[in-house]
């Protein structure tokens, strides 16, 4: 197995006023919180959005691991729908001291390049800033952060920067090169 160099960039916002929202796309695009913890639905989103860009860390999770994660206070999944079809999602996770991480964000391949991503990231970031309003007992959000890497889509970093995120760390590590798993074997042409 060969290794590849993967660059990971960490970005943050330290005030709600840092957010620079994108315009909403044309058409019937809605963003809805998935309020019922559903391992099946969350795994579908994860595998479908990340299948062509080598998201593999959660593919081995059991049903119980998904359920446990989704039931944690301050974990939220916000899903973008285009005319009723899931187009992408943003997953938030409350951390200590008023920090919220955008753990996962992305669009299914068929919905990329249609201005949905900027809108979804804007909406998800705003929900990170007001997360404590929906979760009594959580500290008010003081910082929202995320990471992206060189394996992500070519427009990911630009989208984060245009939404007002600022770079605070860069790391380069060697990782084993793995084939894009797709949402199911053979989903993407070789």
From TrEMBL:
UniProt-listed CDD domains: NAT_SF (cd04301)
Gene3D superfamilies from the UniProt entry: 3.40.630.30
Molecular function terms from GO: acyltransferase activity, transferring groups other than amino-acyl groups
Highest taxon in the source lineage: Bacteria
Domain N-acetyltransferase: 29-190
Keyword Metal-binding annotated: no
UniProt keyword terms in alphabetical order: Transferase
Protein name (Swiss-Prot/TrEMBL): GNAT family N-acetyltransferase
């Amino acid at each position: 197995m060969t290794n590849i160099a993967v660059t990971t960039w960490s970005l943050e916002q330290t005030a709600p006023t840092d957010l620079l929202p994108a315009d909403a796309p044309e058409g019937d695009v809605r963003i809805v919180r998935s309020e019922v913890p559903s391992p099946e639905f969350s795994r579908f989103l994860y595998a479908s959005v990340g299948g062509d860009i080598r998201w593999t860390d959660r593919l081995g999770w059991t049903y119980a691991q998904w359920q446990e994660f989704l039931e944690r206070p301050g974990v939220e999944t916000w899903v973008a729908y285009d005319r009723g079809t899931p187009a992408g999602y943003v997953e938030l996770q409350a951390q200590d001291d008023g920090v919220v991480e955008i753990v996962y964000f992305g669009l299914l391949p068929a919905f990329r390049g249609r201005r949905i991503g900027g809108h979804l990231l804007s909406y998800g970031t705003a929900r990170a800033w007001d997360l404590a309003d929906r979760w009594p007992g959580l500290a008010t959000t003081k910082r929202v952060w995320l990471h992206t890497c060189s394996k992500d889509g070519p427009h990911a970093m630009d989208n984060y920067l245009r939404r007002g995120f600022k770079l605070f760390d860069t790391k380069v590590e060697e990782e084993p090169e793995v084939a894009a798993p797709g949402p199911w074997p053979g989903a993407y042409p070789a």
